[in-house]
Amino acid sequence: MDEQLKVIASQWLIKADNDLKTAEFGLTSSEPITDTICFHCQQAAEKYLKMYLAIKGNEPSITHNISILVAKCAIYDSSFIELQRFGFLTSYAVSLRYPDDFYMPEVEEAEVALTAAQNVREFVVARHEI
Q1: I need a labelling partner for 43 at 20 to 30 A (CA). Which of 21, 31, 64, 119 fits?
Q2: What residues have CB less than 8 Å from 110, skipping those under 6 apart?
Q3: Helix or strand or coil: residue 22?
Q4: From CA 68, how far away is CA 76, in angstroms rounded?
């Protein structure tokens, strides 16, 4: 991997890891703010996938859709298809940020979202070098 791609990948990784850490920290609170936790889980998964695409020289599109990003990653490595099961994270990208469709996830749902984001991280990081 050339030096510029390493820099770009490391920047995506830092941003994704910060989202994941925010979600993890949020769940340790005595009063977890579950909508924010789920949002950061989606953001982390999105950024890990975009990091992989960037490493492959593919300019990540402006999308929050995990399934679309997984499909694009699968062009380079078909095993990414197994991440489609985490497509549910997409629903946390925008809808939880506004009161139009008010929804507050339960703590258990936030825990599932966190596990999904952690799995995406583990999967993606195992398939690249920085």
Answers
A1: 31
A2: 23, 26, 27, 32, 34, 37, 38, 41
A3: helix
A4: 14
Note the CATH architecture for domain 3-125. Up-down Bundle (1.20)
Q: Residue written as tokens 């985490």?
A: 86
State the residue for tokens 């791609």.
Answer: 5
Are residues 35 and 104 in contact, defined by beta-carbon separation less than 8 angstroms?
yes
Rounded to a whole number of angstroms, the distance between the first and last alpha carbons of the chain is 8
Q: Which amino acid is at 61?
A: S
The Cα-based distances of 50 to 45, 71, 116 in angstroms read 9, 12, 16
Q: What kind and span of H or E run contains 60? A: none
pLDDT in tens, 60-109: 788 999 999 999 999 999 999 999 999 999 999 987 666 777 888 999 99
Q: What are phi and psi of 64, to 5 degrees?
A: -105, 0
CA gyration radius, the chain: 14
pTM for the full model?
A: 0.93
